[in-house]
Design brief:
Elements: H1 2-32, H2 38-41, H3 57-62, H4 74-91, E1 103-108, H5 115-127, E2 133-138, H6 146-149, H7 158-162, E3 174-175, E4 181-184, H8 193-197, H9 200-211, E5 216-221, H10 229-235, E6 240-246, H11 252-260, E7 267-278, E8 284-292
Parallel strand pairs: 1-5, 1-6, 2-4, 2-5, 6-7
Antiparallel strand pairs: 3-4, 7-8
């Protein structure tokens, strides 16, 4: 009798052990081999589309920039006169004698003379042309001010491309609500900015800017010329230079020193900024004058 009970208990123990082993294996399989939905297996990672810049043109006009609303203003006329000379140099007979005549650097001798204000107004004015497009590049990688001047938020730009954080220049080339205007921001500062701007990668990029679109003007807002190496490097890329001079502030020696840092084969013009003169009714206003260098 006891032998029968012992056999029954042993059989029951073996049965329980087998059941426990089966449950553990099932649980183990459920952890290491989860069942995935078909959509979860090969679903590629998607990138959010790059959005363009929306420029508040009315606010810009209120802040003293040119107007694109059709309003006839003195500053509009002044920048029309300036851009006519630049466009003639870029696409007229002189273009054959210049290297990259459609690339224009806007600079100054010293900071705070109005170069970014001039660069942005030139870009806006050229964007109003019927048969031209314009690319505005903030190349003042030390103190970028294009986005701030236009009332836009900071984004990745030229430096992120040059150091390899973005793969293609198109990733930092932003469209705007002005159909013929595109912008490349400066991006973040970098301790090797001089070397990056002098790199073969930058050379290739500028060549593409100059040659890919025959109707395109490229405006580089560059650092001031005196005491900053980046500007002298960028001068080798451009066919034209606009040197902004603040009336009553710029010194003649500074202007001469600035010109010496430019490529002598460039077409060089000067914009006199913040010059107060008067209408026939005696009211004063600020003027912007363009004059070419006399050799």
């Amino acid at each position: 009798m006891s032998n029968t009970i012992e056999k029954a208990l042993l059989k029951q123990k073996q049965k329980n052990a087998l059941a426990n082993s089966s449950n553990q294996e099932s649980a183990s399989n459920s952890v290491t081999e989860p069942q995935l939905e078909p959509n979860d297996v090969a679903k590629p990672e998607t990138k959010s589309p790059k959005s363009g810049f929306k420029i508040n043109l009315e606010k810009l006009s209120d802040n003293g920039h040119i107007s694109l609303s059709g309003e006839r203003r003195q500053i509009n006329e002044e920048y029309r006169e300036i851009k006519r000379k630049l466009l003639a140099n870029a696409f007229g007979p002189l273009a054959k004698t210049l290297h990259n005549p459609n690339i224009i650097m806007v600079t100054s001798s010293r900071p705070s003379e109005g170069k970014t204000f001039t660069a942005t107004n030139l870009a806006l004015s050229i964007a109003a042309e019927q048969d031209k497009t314009v690319l505005l590049v903030d190349a003042d990688v030390l103190k970028p001010n294009v986005l701030n001047t236009l009332g836009l938020e900071r984004r990745k730009g030229l430096m992120e491309y040059l150091i390899g954080e973005v793969d293609d220049i198109s990733e930092v080339l932003y469209s705007t609500n002005i159909d013929k205007l595109k912008i490349i921001p400066a991006g973040r500062s970098h301790h090797l900015s001089t070397e990056m701007l002098a790199s073969h990668k930058m050379h290739e990029t500028v060549d593409e800017f100059a040659n890919r679109y025959p109707d395109r003007i490229v405006i580089f807002d560059t650092p001031p010329l005196i005491g900053i190496n980046e500007s002298a490097i960028l001068a080798n890329f451009a066919g034209q230079a606009v040197v902004v001079v603040e009336e009553g502030k710029a010194k003649l020696n500074d202007v001469k020193m600035s010109v010496e840092r430019l490529n002598p084969d460039m077409a060089i013009g000067f914009v006199v900024n913040k010059s107060v003169h008067y209408d026939t009714d005696g009211s004063g206003y600020y003027g912007y004058y363009y004059s070419e260098r006399k050799d």
